[in-house]
Structures are given as structure tokens and as C-alpha cells.
Specification:
Radius of gyration: 13 Å
Largest sheet: 7 strands, mixed
Distance between the termini: 40 Å
Strand content: over 45%
Helix content: under 10%
Number of helices: 0
Length: 113
């Protein structure tokens, strides 16, 4: 069973940057597609970025060009570099293993001046 723990959330001003991390337990991280998701108040959870084992990346239009997903298989860690953030990026951010329907507990990101 994979357990995921996110960190790095917080309060950031519009236009600022933030890096989220997600550490996975177990020895399966390197074998799976990994993804970042977010859920804003009153909205459904949405997929915003994915990275394959071979490091092919996919982004939702809402974050393309501003967010970058990466992975460090040796450290069992997934990252989301967020730049030029906007108030509409405010949400709880989760990492997940889509093929296992497994997600972390989330980390809150608030974009506000």
C-alpha cells in the first residue's frame, strides 16, 4: 500500500512562486504515473498535472506554462513547482497515484495579497 504525504503549501502573493513536495512510502513510486490534483472550495477535485515513469508530462490548460511537475525516483518524491500564481489557484493540492486511486491528505495553497 502506498502512502503519500504532501508539504510545501502556504500563503503566497499573486505572481509569486511555491514548490510542493509529495513523499511516497514503499518501493513502488518509480513504477507508476504520478499526478497532482487540486480542489477549491465548492468545486470538484481536478487533475492538473501528471508525469509518467519516463517523465512525459501533461498539464491542464489552467496551469500550463506556469506549473512544472517533476519526480525524483531515488527519493520517492514528486514535486510541483508553481510560478506566477493567481488567486484562482487557491485550493487544497493533492498528489496521487491515479492507477491505484491513492491520494495524499493534501496541502493548502492560498494565493492572496
Amino acid at each position: 500500500q502506498v502512502q503519500l504525504v504532501e508539504s510545501g503549501g502556504g500563503l503566497v502573493q499573486p505572481g509569486g512562486s511555491l514548490r510542493l513536495s509529495c513523499v511516497a512510502s514503499g518501493n513502488v513510486f518509480r513504477y507508476y504515473i504520478m499526478g497532482w490534483y487540486r480542489q477549491a472550495p465548492g468545486k470538484q477535485r481536478e487533475s492538473i498535472a501528471r508525469i509518467t515513469v519516463s517523465r512525459n508530462e501533461w498539464y491542464a490548460d489552467s496551469v500550463k506554462g506556469r506549473f512544472t511537475i517533476s519526480r525524483d525516483n531515488a527519493a520517492n518524491t514528486l514535486y510541483l513547482q508553481m510560478t506566477n500564481v493567481r488567486p484562482e489557484d487557491t485550493a487544497t493540492y493533492y498528489c496521487g497515484v491515479p492507477n491505484l486511486l491513492t491520494y495524499g491528505q493534501g496541502t493548502q495553497v492560498t494565493v492572496s495579497s
